[in-house]
Amino acid sequence: MTRPIVLISRGIFCLAVLGTIGTTIGPGVADAVTFAPGDLFVGTRNGNIQWRDASGADYSPTRVITTGDGGAQTGMRHSPLTHSLWITNFDAFTNGPPSIRIVDNTGLPAGSASFSGLLKTESVVFDAIGNAYVGGPQGVLVKLDPLGNVVTTFNVPLTGGAVGPDWIDLARDQRTIFYTYERQVVKRYDVVSNTPLPDFADLSSVMNPGQRLFALRLLPDDGLLIAGQRELYRLDAQGKVVQTYDVPGEDQFFSLALTPDCQSFWTGTLFNSTFSAFNVYEFGIASGLVERSFDAKSSVGGVAVLGDACGGSLSRVPAPTTLWLVGAGLTIVAILQARNKRPSKPAHLNS
Question: In this structure, what DSSP letter does residue 112 have?
Fold first, then answer.
């Protein structure tokens, strides 16, 4: 059986018909293999993304998305228009892996985006109509359209010789970027007026010297969750720490993603204190307890959950009709652009 899917390649949408991929992921399940709400994606090394079910357990057989890129894959998010997964390549460089690798909602590589000024990318977030903002350690924030084309760039302020904006999230107002930069302060930037905003939080009073802030997610109450190496922190809408999360022997909490119901979150570690495990944990937000965990067997650079949209820019997504119209318009434009162009050949899932 064949099925049409949407591919993104060379910055355009194109329709392609792909044959069954049942032989690569196990017989009898090919027509059901698409991303589902709550599915967990774990970025490790060498282009491999673990695709797990909502409980964090391996599928049977295990599904591994192979992008073909080397180095470290870090922050990831799903497009609100297509559910494609956009993966940042922290080790991207000129003539090397692209800044962003895109896979469709079956796990097939479907294109990429590369741009000057920000080669090493570390995080990505979408607005409600599918534009993407990409952060990294080079002082530049890049805005892409839903096709992966550069719209504009922002030179965001940093302090103390830091690097960033490493990890970013977008508020419900569709204009305020919250970001970290490997220090103990959460900063904000207005991408509409192109101006810096007052800092959201300074955690230096609760963090040890040298401890750094990494991935963050906004919450429905306008607070946020943030990974801070030795601990994870929950902040209220005024930027005050109201809860901490920790596991003995873990000092490298790095990435995180919310579950669709916003009752829990997943976090990945770079390594544990004995360098013997690379654990991923699900914490209950209210309880602070570990609900699930597993060893990813490799340093975890990023995690993503399909449906991670309860607290930030996608918590007020336009009506389905609006999204359909946006998608239809983009498709028409892409078809016109695609004349005389051939899409890149997709790879397959490896088990």
Answer: E
* Residues facing residue 227 across a β-bridge: 232
In a domain, 342, yes or no: no
Tell me the one-letter amino acid at 347: A
CB 41 within 8 A of CB 48: no
Residue 346 lies in a domain: no
Question: CB–CB of 107/63 below 8 Å?
Answer: yes
CA 347 vs CA 48, 110, 111, 206: distances in Å: 13, 9, 11, 46
Determine, yes or no, domain membership for 25: no
Q: How far apart are CA 185 and CA 203, in angstroms?
A: 6
The per-residue pLDDT for range 116-125, each reduced to its tens digit, is: 767 789 999 9
Token digits of residue 9: 């390649």
- By residue range, what is the domain housing residue 255? 42-326
Segments of 31-108 assigned E as strands: 40-43, 48-52, 58-66, 73-78, 85-89, 100-103
CA gap 290, 307 in Å, rounded: 20
pLDDT tens by residue, 131-148: 999 998 878 899 999 999
**How much is the pTM?**
0.81
